[in-house]
Design goal:
Immunoglobulin-like
Length: 125
């Protein structure tokens, strides 16, 4: 699986570009993706799947405009984001579910039947 690497702010990331941190879990029957996207409303998040690529995008807007010289320290990310993840197996996108609670986006992506792991039992002779 190829995951677009996370870029830290001190590695030359501009304020208008950021990428949410994610976890991807692969079980026998589904993939689960969790993404930390605090400060957005659910209708500000766009999730799509195309050609085996899951894309999560949106924009985190600055709540209050503060003059730059007034900042003592600024570490929170603002601006648009676009996170792409190559999925390790085919999913049934029409049965996928997405929930957003407490700043965490959770996607459940059921695998297509042919992508599910098939177990073969070993018998004695």
């Amino acid at each position: 699986m190829n995951i677009v690497p996370y870029k830290r702010r001190d590695e030359g990331l501009f304020e208008s570009e950021w990428s949410p941190l994610i976890d991807v879990y692969d079980s026998d029957n589904e993939l689960m993706v969790k993404a930390d996207i605090p400060g957005l409303k659910k209708d500000e998040i766009d999730v799509s799947i195309h050609d085996g690529i899951l894309t999560i995008k949106g924009e985190k807007k600055i709540e209050n405009e503060v003059r730059e010289e007034s900042y003592f320290r600024s570490e929170r990310f603002y601006g648009s984001f676009n996170r792409c993840i190559e999925l390790p197996s085919e999913v049934e996108w029409d049965k996928a579910t997405a929930t957003y609670k407490d700043g965490v986006l959770e996607l459940k992506l059921p695998k297509k039947e042919e992508a599910k792991i098939k177990r073969i039992s070993v018998n004695d002779k």
